[in-house]
Amino acid sequence: MTAFPSAVGPVSRPLPPQRPALLRFRRATPVRLVYALDVHDHVARGNAGLTEDATMQGDFGEKWLAAVASGCGLQAVPVNCPDLDKADVEITYLGELNGWSSPSIKVQVKTTEDLRLPAGDAAAFDLDIPTYDVLRRTNQFTPRILVVFRLEPGRRVEVEEQATHLVGRGYWASLAGLDATTNTSSVAVRLPLENMVDGTGLQKMLEDFGVRRSSFVPEVSPWE
Amino acid sequence: MGVIAGLEQLTLQALRRYLEAAGWQHLDDARGSSVWRMHLADADLQVALPMDAGVTDYGEVILSALKVVAYVESRSIDEIAADVKYGGADIVSVRLTPDSPSGEAPLPVAEVAVRALKDLVIGTAAGLEFDKAILPQWRPRATRYLQQVRLSTSPGSFIVSLSLPLYEDVKPATPSTSDQTAMDDTVVVEAEPFGRRVSARMRAVAQSAVSLAVQAAEDGDLTVFESDPMATGNPKELTALAELGGSRGASYELRFSPSPLVASEASAPQNIRVEGEQRQLLLKAADLLRALKPKSDITVLGNVVSLTRESLLGPGLVVIKGIERDGPVHRYRALVSEDQYREAERAHMQWLPVSARGNLAVRGNFLVLESLNWFTVQEPLGD
Are B158 and B96 spatial neighbours (Cβ–Cβ below 8 Å)? Predict the structure, then answer.
């Protein structure tokens, strides 16, 4: 099991420039991660067969996405049936985005230390066939997006006095409309390097693929 | 199971029709979604429907949409879904709390509840059809309407719900070769659809039944149910309300959830609780109403509780609350002469018992003493 990482001292790293777009990643906002992972919960969700490390790593990716989305003023909600839906997080902007009210998408999150970065403008990730077949569908109301976080071996979170860094980088892509494959195990999917998981990237995700959804409201208890 | 399990059966056409009729404003259809808006208090709420019913997450999208509608209308998703499914329906639910897991009930309890609900629908629909406390055996309109009513169950603890369609399936009484109405035929269009009248009466009767039961428990006077059975419940309705709770002594809750598709005075949902002891009183009240039968040459002994006449002088109507022989206390109406009216006034003011003899008739919902032979005030014994 990966030990909870301790602070490794001051890290000199350039911070992302201020984004003029509607959604901005707030530089000074410390990102608080909750590491209270319930491995049994993952087993109950049907992740039998995965190692404890793998489930923890997968959960880390979902929390990373949720932290970035929340930091950009978006709502990030876990999906009820992630295995059936092939989606882990639903991201919604609770407002108007270029004239669209409450655009929403569902995201399937993957994490890997082996993201291939060939020369060119895209990374390549080996996606399992069942997930690929769901994500390439075009007959879903809420579009699915694939997010892959490239992790650094042995490094996850670096905590400084003024900031907490998530070590790695996330990329995303829409697989909707891609052709079926005759592969039996996995298929290499392309993740454009310009599609980063940051404020600009999430905004583009919602603008290009988001669908308007119904308002979030409290539950009604008719017998109360 | 509630209707939530069958959300995929709700068609886009039915949903759109419902939203429009319920006052939602259609914004647009674009990029796969049909968006509707409603302004509520200080917020704009949005409902998004898919434009294609074939999407794989159709049920999930519809559930999200119905959650918003349920919030606006203060109703449950099941109630909204049933309203949409039946093209406009008022929902009446009874919540029982049997000693069993949520969503389950012992079969005898469920059987009694279902039968009582059926009787409640018949009693209410027939009560609208006939202006009588005792309903005739032949109730064509009520029986026809009953065929349209749908029953469902849901957990919480054990809830049985009726979907009462707002509109009847009306078939022409006689076959005709033409679809046109003849020039001399009269088409009757009711101001309020029959289904709404049924649910509204059910709610009114339940409210008044509970209120009268509280009053009867305090005063020990069941004849309050005789004052106006058309408004306060006929025997079939009262018995049904008494039986609904299932096991003896158990209390239950009734919920009335009217559809917004037809506007009326009582448009907000309402819950009414019926306690165990009230159920017992309702049963007795039903028996009391059932005992109304015509008889000849009876003598009633009681007190004058009400007098009315249209002028300062002349004959008038008196109501005597009393008994005939060893029977239960009833309220008897009698048309009396001017002299008898004067006597009745005196008896009422001094609370002196009166005796009246005549033929007992049942007129509508009232016991009437006709062909009065005598009307006397029983004077107190001298000291």
Answer: yes
Quick check: A215 contacting B, CB < 8 Å? yes
Contact between chains at A218 and B45 (C-beta distance less than 8 A)? no
Laid out side by side, the sheet with B89-96 consists of: B150-155, B158-165, B89-96, B252-257, B270-274
pLDDT at B112 over 70: yes
Q: Chain B partners of A144 at a C-beta cutoff of 8 Å?
A: none
Q: Counting every residue, how long is chain B?
A: 383
Task: Please calculate the CA angle A16-A19-A24 and round it to the nearest 5 degrees.
Answer: 90
Q: Rounded to whole angstroms, how far apart are CA atoms A5 and A167?
A: 11
Q: Which residues of B touch A141 (CB under 8 A)?
A: 32-33, 50, 55, 57-58, 60-61
Give contacts of B 73-112 with A, CB under 8 A. Answer: 74-77, 79, 95
- Two tokens at A224? 């109360």
| Contact (Cβ atoms closer than 8 angstroms) between residue A90 and residue A105 | yes
Is the pLDDT confidence value at B130 over 50? yes
Of B56, B67, B255, the CB nearest to A140: B56
Determine the Cα–Cα distance for residues B188 and B351; give it in Å rounded to an integer.
Answer: 50
Tell me how crowded residue B273 is: count the other CB atoms within 10 A of its CB. 11
Q: Cα(B173)–Cα(B210) distance, rounded to whole angstroms?
A: 39
Average pLDDT over residues B29-45: 91
Q: What is the DSSP string of A90-104?
A: EEE-SSEETTEESEE
Helices (H), chain A: 39-44, 52-71, 82-85, 129-135, 199-209
Tens digits of per-residue pLDDT, B52-65? Answer: 999 999 999 999 99
A142 touches chain B (CB under 8 A): yes
Instruction: Quote the CA–CA distance of A21 and A29 in Å, as a whole number.
Output: 18
For residue B254, the chain A residue with the least C-alpha distance is A223
Q: Is the ipTM of this complex over 0.90?
A: no
DSSP secondary structure of B285-329: HHHHHHT---EEEEEEEEEEEEEE-SSSSS-EEEEEEEEETTS--
Are B64 and A214 an interchain contact pair (Cβ–Cβ within 8 Å)?
yes
Measure A209 CA to nearest chain B CA, in Å: 9
Confidence at residue A48, expressed as pLDDT on a 0 to 100 scale: 40
In the structure encoding, which two tokens stand for residue A53, read together? 């490390």
Chain B residues with CB inside 8 Å of A218's CB? 71
pLDDT at site B136: 73
Q: Find the residue in B nearest to A223 (Cα).
A: B271
Q: Three-state SS for B70? A: helix
pLDDT at B104: 87
Looking at residue B5, its pLDDT comes to: 60
In whole angstroms, what is the distance from residue B228 CA to residue B226 CA?
Answer: 6
CA nearest to B75 within chain A: A222
